[in-house]
Amino acid sequence: MNAPGTFTLGPGDGSARTGRLTTAHGEIETPVFMPVGTQGTVKSLCPTDLQDIKARIILGNTYHLYLRPGDELVAKLGGLHRFMGWDGPILTDSGGFQVFSLSGLRRITEEGVTFASHIDGSKHLFSPEKVVSIQRNLGSDIMMVLDECVPYGADRAYTEKSLGLTTRWARRCREAHPAGDRGQLMFGIVQGGFFKDLRAQSAEQIIEVGFDGYALGGLSVGESRAEMYDILGDAAPLLPAERPRYLMGVGAPRDLLAGMAAGIDMFDCVLPTRNARNGTLFTFQGKVNIKRAEYREDDSPLDPTCPCYACRTFSRAYLRHLYIAKELLSYRLNTLHNLTFFSIMMERARQAIREGRFAAYRAEMEALYPEGE
Ligand SMILES: Nc1nc(=O)c2cc3nc(NCCN4CCCCC4)[nH]c3cc2[nH]1
Ligand SMILES: [Zn+2]
């Protein structure tokens, strides 16, 4: 197997491209969607389920695992792969975003970000060195640098000042983890808000530090689709073509397609798993809100084209019953299905890119999933 970090590009179609990324826990075909496993579990699923639905890489969160159960404990017990029983690739976000979206009382200084735990209010400092140490303890295959995800609507002065700090933090993360040490990769994160020149400035600085892959941060933070796509189209091509490009926190089917069209290789979003738990299901005939009364006596499978256990075994009526009755099995079956849908959608996208018919595939999927999630 190639060395971790090896990224080989395959056939492309316009700016969309296919590729293969080698990690210490296996190879990933790109473009790829990463199910979110925030606290060391993709909610309601076993690792064997993830294998069954052909999930290739999952996402964990430094912020959550540091606060509970603690990265030192996870390291003592053999690292996150062994702890959670998943031997495939794991990417961990650095905590920057979670601190801003979850914790109370936070202060940003040159040293790092101090915050109060959303669990018990205890005070903590995330410095670049600290978040690298946590991710090294967890044994992540891909570590993310500490960055400031600039809030939507931040003015130019704030955004420019913040990207400078994010660059200095990125440098400190790089210094804290020698390239490829222990097979653990590190991705940089580009900020710059919704100012194209600041995005270019941030990209240039982060690329100059040098990472195994590059992420676009600061998007999917409340902006309109048009605003996200405008920045995406401008910033994605600035990232080195020979390294993986990761669009953080995205997204809905049409956003994944737009991201792939712009040359993005990796995505993560809570949408399929979170929507599963609130009964919003993605099918190849469009969206199904399983709680609707129309499904009460519907003996047909959720999606007759879907190979997942839920669609092979149960009726919509049963899935609706489980949801209405608040049965735990509802979470598991709906999540199995939604992640299978995302997995199949990405596989078909990779195939369409290889065959030079990505634009047609994108149009076909957008017809199923018009504006809005
Ligand atoms: N380190 C780091 N930096 C970011 O700028 C960042 C930006 C992000 N933007 C999102 N958006 C998530 C949006 N999500 C959509 C579905 C419902 C819940 C929120 N996640 C992100 C994660 C991020 N992580
Ligand atoms: Zn299914």
UniProtKB/TrEMBL annotation:
Reactions it catalyzes: 7-aminomethyl-7-carbaguanine + guanosine(34) in tRNA = 7-aminomethyl-7-carbaguanosine(34) in tRNA + guanine
Active site: D93, D268
Amino-acid positions noted as binding substrate in the UniProt annotation, renumbered to this chain: D93, S94, G95, G96, F97, D147, Q191, G218
SUPFAM superfamilies per the UniProt record, alphabetical: tRNA-guanine transglycosylase (SSF51713)
Binding of Zn(2+), residues: C306, C308, C311, H337
InterPro entries the record matches: ArchSynthase1/Queuine_TRR, TGT, TGT-like_sf, tRNA_ribo_trans-like
The protein's Enzyme Commission number: 2.4.2.29
tRNA-guanine(15) transglycosylase-like domain ranges (all copies): 15-370
Coiled coil regions in record: none
Region: RNA binding, residue numbers: 249-255, 273-277
Cofactor: Zn(2+)
Pathway: tRNA modification; tRNA-queuosine biosynthesis
Record family assignment: Belongs to the queuine tRNA-ribosyltransferase family.
Known function: Catalyzes the base-exchange of a guanine (G) residue with the queuine precursor 7-aminomethyl-7-deazaguanine (PreQ1) at position 34 (anticodon wobble position) in tRNAs with GU(N) anticodons (tRNA-Asp, -Asn, -His and -Tyr). Catalysis occurs through a double-displacement mechanism. The nucleophile active site attacks the C1' of nucleotide 34 to detach the guanine base from the RNA, forming a covalent enzyme-RNA intermediate. The proton acceptor active site deprotonates the incoming PreQ1, allowing a nucleophilic attack on the C1' of the ribose to form the product.
Name by which UniProt lists this protein: Queuine tRNA-ribosyltransferase
Organism: Solidesulfovibrio carbinolicus
Originating gene: tgt
